[in-house]
Amino acid sequence: MVTKPHKPAPPAKPTLAAARAARLNAAQKATAKPARHWLWRTLARVPRLLPSTCVLCGQDGHDTLCTPCRQRFFTRQHRRCVQCALPMPVTGRDPRCGACLKDRPAFDATIVATDYIGPADQMALALKFGGDLRVAPLLADLIRHAALRDPLPGSDIQLPLPTMLAPVPLGAARLRERGFNQALEIARPLSRLLDIDLQPQLLERVRDTQAQSGLPLTARARNTRNAFALPYQLADHVKGRHVGIVDDVMTTGQTLNEVAIILKRHGAKRVTNLVFARTLAL
Length: 282
What we know:
Elements: H1 16-45, E1 52-53, E2 60-61, H2 67-73, H3 98-102, E3 109-115, H4 120-128, H5 135-148, E4 164-167, H6 172-178, H7 182-194, E5 197-198, E6 204-205, H8 217-224, E7 228-229, E8 242-250, H9 254-265, E9 270-278
Parallel strand pairs: 3-9, 4-5, 4-8, 8-9
Antiparallel strand pairs: 1-2, 6-7
Helix pairs in contact: 5-7
């Protein structure tokens, strides 16, 4: 007697309730991180009506940065190169440093709130890698103060403010990983503080790049080359305009220079960087 091989029973079809539950669970997982960052962004905009702590010293109060820390770390002004914002000797007559005179960047000016040294570097790191979005409006406020003060103490040089702002964009992979663009989080409140139009999608990163901080100086220009573009529909939007580019930290300036090259190529009249912290020359 020949017996036929036993056929396994077909898998049971999921019930309607089970299918709905599976879809809901997948949706929750997909939106958990963006929702969390949306909540952080919302809380960062809430007026400081409730007690807070200073981001540097931990003192209780209503401000993210207490008055003593602000006065101690953010009122001292250096003489800086008007183009790249590196500190310069107080005796020099030219407003640009030797490096910018020898090899002029594509951007025209750089405004920074402070140097990238302690404890200011901890504020930038808390935003960028710690996800502490309450720091973003504070950094924007410090940039605003830098933008409105004299660029060179004791001189009559005045830097014009941009007529539009745009953040340095993140690549798609890094944006998914981090959940937010720290440059955009700074640019939003800065736009309101300076009353300058913000164009969040003006620039796009068309090629993911390695983190500049992990590369030798000789490789950084190559890393960012051709990494940015203007969307087709905005290609004429910068003609004759003064564009301000917002970022958290300026290291060698290669990223901002590449952005300025793209903007100038599409007719921008002037490009000014507005950055929280400037890394000192090695």
